[in-house]
């Protein structure tokens, strides 16, 4: 299993990319929400 994790097959690339994209989108979403909450008048 360790060697499989160190060298993932090409078939696993879409899953890795989707995980990466979803994490990036999630962090950007959190930053946008914080920014909008700061700009919102009290």
Please sum up the structure shown.
By secondary structure, the chain is mainly alpha-helical. The protein has helices spanning 2-6, 13-39.
Order of helices and strands: HH
Strand content: under 5%
Mean of residue pLDDT? 82
What gyration radius follows from the Cα positions, in whole Å?
17 Å
Spans of at least 5 consecutive residues whose pLDDT stays below 50 are: none
- How many strand elements? 0
* Helix content bin: over 70%
Oligomer: single chain
- Put simply, the count of helices is 2
Q: In angstroms, what separates the terminal alpha carbons?
A: 53 Å
What does this structure look like?
With 42 residues, this protein is mainly alpha-helical. Helices cover 76% and strands 0% of the residues. It is built from two helices and no strands. The chain has helices at 2-6, 13-39.
Write the layout of secondary structure elements.
Elements: H1 2-6, H2 13-39
């Amino acid at each position: 299993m360790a060697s499989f994790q160190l060298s993932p097959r090409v078939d696993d690339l879409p899953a890795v990319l989707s995980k990466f994209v979803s994490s990036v989108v999630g962090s950007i979403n959190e930053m946008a929400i914080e920014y909008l909450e700061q700009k919102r008048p009290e």
